[in-house]
């Protein structure tokens, strides 16, 4: 009984001390009631306010792990047998909460569009480029170029990198954005230098939304055998931005990407998890032509599958600037012009190979 009385006195003293020091601001009560037990009108008002992290009153100093409403509360014993303090860790599914490869970008991560000429990096394969070892190269018999792990970091995020893409509808130039996602840029650079993207199709084209490619199988299900982690993102999906495609699962981006043909920032919501890694700086007419090809119903149930293959024939990476023969750069965010479907490719495409699997896609519209 004496022990119980002592505990009650201790509890009241703690409540009084909390009130005297402004504890009510942390969810405390003038009645000395524990902060996680509001009553009557107080409970109604609390429900209307943003969540607060209350002090827990747990006898015996137990360490408890509580999962509720997307918040994990880690209970740290305060040293008192009668009280423990709850420290909250927010695990809301946002881009920033995903495990990033680097801190969230701040400010203008894109910078000025480069105009100086760069040096072409040789497409010398997966091993000679330093991206993978021979032991990491695997094959599933359908898509020969696959690896057991993401590539080693071979780029310098402080450098300027661009990519010259040749398609059967014309060329385009991208400015790669390691400031936004060094891991995604490094993966793209390594895949390009290994020849992974050679003759890969743009398999999904949606009006006023995106053109998607990067899967050599042409099915929307292929990948390089590894995935890269989600990175904290800037959330800019304006026209011309190039973004990694992924499944609904976290950390599921591989080789597929999409070019935003309109401003999709509002479409992807306030907490996007799709990784931006490049932007179109030249060859907008090529983007326009691809966006306007004749299509039929695709695997996504929409009129999104090109009637004739649209191919990414090759990718050349430049370090330090742009290709010498690049077209005059266009301002990032330039919308795709409205043109009729049925544009004519520059050269005829080869046959494509399709395999079953789980589609990697952008959000449905």
Return the string of H and E elements.
HHEEEEEEEEHEEEEHEHEEE
Give me the CATH superfamily of the largest domain.
Answer: Cyclophilin-like
The description of the largest β-sheet is:
8 strands, antiparallel, barrel
List segments where confidence is low: pLDDT < 50 over at least 5 consecutive residues.
21-107, 327-361
How many independent structural domains?
2
Number of helices: 5
> What would you call the structural class?
alpha+beta
CATH-derived topology of the largest domain: Cyclophilin
How would you describe what is shown here?
The chain is of the alpha+beta class. It folds into 2 domains: 2-90, no CATH class; 119-319, Cyclophilin-like (Cyclophilin, Beta Barrel). It is built from 5 helices and 16 strands. The protein has helices spanning 2-20, 40-48, 182-193, 265-268, 284-291, and strands at residues 65-68, 71-77, 84-90, 119-120, 137-138, 146-147, 161-167, 170-176, 200-206, 210-213, 241-244, 257-260, 276-282, 295-297, 303-306, 311-319. The protein has an 8-stranded antiparallel barrel. β2 and β3 (84-90) form a beta hairpin. The longest helix is centred in the first third of the chain and has 19 residues, at 2-20. It is globular. Residues 13-23 have a biased composition (Low complexity). Residues 167-317 form the PPIase cyclophilin-type domain. This is peptidylprolyl isomerase. Residues 1-50 are annotated as: Disordered. Keywords: Isomerase, Membrane, Rotamase, Transmembrane, Transmembrane helix.
């Amino acid at each position: 009984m004496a022990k119980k009385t002592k505990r009650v006195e201790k509890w009241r003293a703690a409540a009084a001390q909390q009130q005297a020091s402004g504890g009510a601001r942390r969810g405390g009560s003038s009645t000395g009631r524990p902060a996680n037990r509001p009553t009557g009108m107080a409970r109604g008002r609390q429900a209307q306010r943003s969540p607060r992290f209350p002090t827990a009153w747990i006898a015996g100093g137990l360490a408890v792990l509580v999962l509720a409403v997307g918040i994990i509360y880690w209970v740290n014993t305060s040293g008192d047998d009668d009280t423990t303090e709850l420290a909250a860790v927010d695990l809301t599914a946002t881009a920033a909460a995903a495990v990033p490869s680097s801190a969230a970008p701040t400010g203008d991560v894109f910078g000025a569009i480069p105009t100086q000429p760069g040096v072409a990096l040789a497409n010398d394969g997966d091993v000679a480029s330093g991206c993978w070892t021979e032991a990491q190269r695997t094959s599933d018999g359908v898509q020969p170029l696959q690896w057991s792990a993401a590539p080693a970091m071979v780029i310098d995020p402080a450098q300027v990198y661009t990519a010259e893409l040749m398609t059967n509808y014309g060329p385009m130039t991208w400015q790669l954005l390691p400031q936004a996602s060094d891991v995604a840029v490094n993966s793209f650079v390594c895949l390009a230098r290994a020849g992974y993207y050679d003759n890969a199709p743009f398999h999904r084209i949606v009006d006023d939304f995106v053109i998607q490619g990067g899967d050599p199988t042409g099915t929307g299900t292929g990948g390089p055998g590894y995935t890269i982690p989600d990175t904290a993102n800037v959330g800019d999906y304006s026209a011309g931005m190039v973004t990694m495609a992924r499944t609904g699962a976290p950390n599921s981006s591989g080789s597929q990407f999409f070019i935003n043909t309109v401003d999709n920032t509002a479409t992807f919501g306030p907490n996007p998890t799709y990784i931006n890694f490049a932007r179109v700086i030249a060859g907008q007419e090529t983007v326009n032509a691809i966006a306007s090809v004749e299509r039929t119903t695709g695997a996504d149930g929409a009129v999104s599958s090109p009637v004739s293959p649209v191919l990414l024939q090759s990718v050349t990476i430049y370090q330090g600037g742009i290709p010498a023969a690049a077209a005059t750069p266009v301002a990032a965010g330039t919308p795709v012009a409205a043109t009729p479907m049925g544009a004519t490719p520059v050269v005829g495409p080869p046959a494509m190979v399709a395999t079953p699997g789980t589609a990697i896609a952008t959000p449905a519209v």
